[in-house]
Amino acid sequence: MKIQLSHSQKHLKGELQITGSKSESNRVLILQALYPGISLENLSNSDDSRVMQEALLRNSGTVDIHHAGTAMRFLTAYFAAKKGCEVILTGSKRMKERPVKLLVEALKELGAEISYLEHDGFPPLKISGKELRKSFVSVEANISSQYISALMLIAPSLPEGLEIQLEGKVTSTPYIEMTLELLHFLGIEGNFTGNKIKIQPKKNLGSKKVQIESDWSSASYFYSLAAISETADLKLSNYRKTSLQGDSSIAEIYKHFGVATRFEGNSIILEKRPCKKPRRIIENLQNAPDIAQTIAVTCLALGIECELNGLHTLKIKETDRLVALKTEMEKLGARVTITEDSLQLFPLKTLNKNCSIATYNDHRMAMAFAPLALKVPLEIEDSGVVSKSYPGFWEDLEQVGFSLVKSSK
Ligand SMILES: O=C(O)C1=C[C@@H](OP(=O)(O)O)[C@@H](O)[C@H](O)C1
Ligand SMILES: C=C(OP(=O)(O)O)C(=O)O
Prior knowledge:
alpha/beta
């Protein structure tokens, strides 16, 4: 369904409740399947967490996780280590193009039985679960941190735990640290020093409640909205000063755009007041790849030159995000250059009006471009994509004063 967006008020205000981080939720769901005493609060209502919950009830047959990268990677390890299970793990057309070879090879090194049903190195996978008895594995770490988190999540359930040797430059490191912190919170011992991760075995855990922090990647779109507005007062819950999510760096980054963040209990208050805007923004997003689209579009809206580096993982996400960003920002009149791992945007004075933004089955393309409607009327081609991480996104935009017109054409 297409959606036309506009917003006519100068001041943006609202109070929103954002659900739990999908990254934290999908980790804790795997751990809960391994240690049933774990309970969760503020679980993500995303499609990615829903498919994860459904998959964890299965022991045989075809398990389809649609577009969910974390579900694909974490479940590959989970099913491989689950003795007696026989599943075909598959996903959307795009998921069949997202590589999984490094993880499959690492699991095979541990004794797993996994084969490719279509193309070598890609889903769908046929997995015959086995007890994995080895306790050392090495894996290349600069393609996706999800492979490493997947191994860490099953590690405490292996008889001797697991030592993981990371090869090459480690990417998306905060996601690895998030996995480790969650294990620590549950009383599982482990450490990550230099290029080595060591997780100790744990047979039983007893009962533990995990309170999931709300999703900072979802919050990023409200930072963008605040930055683009003349003035804004937004309240978002439930957040923590010390977050496990690397995307919480958005609060620091958006200071450049005049957005201040303060905590009131477990809510964040975003305050934007008129300010002098920077001429140029340079960020390395190797630790926070999911907010690249948000920042690029904020700069486009404000006419700020922007150089984003550390983006080598973007081409294997829901779409090739570098190409998608370039194509859609050029529709609005921008000049954009991309390399394998960077994007450079050159400012323009006036944005083209009434553009129709293609979404490439990527939730973040829809949500990152939506704030532009504060500047020019805009159409988002497939509004439904947001449900991958943030099903209530459009309702929340209405809450902060947006007018939405939906059409099926
Ligand atoms: O572990 C996770 O929860 C995630 C890790 C990141 O992926 P990469 O490690 O592939 O960059 C991130 O982009 C994704 O949205 C979620
Ligand atoms: C890349 C993302 O998710 P995943 O890799 O889990 O599909 C994302 O949410 O931006």
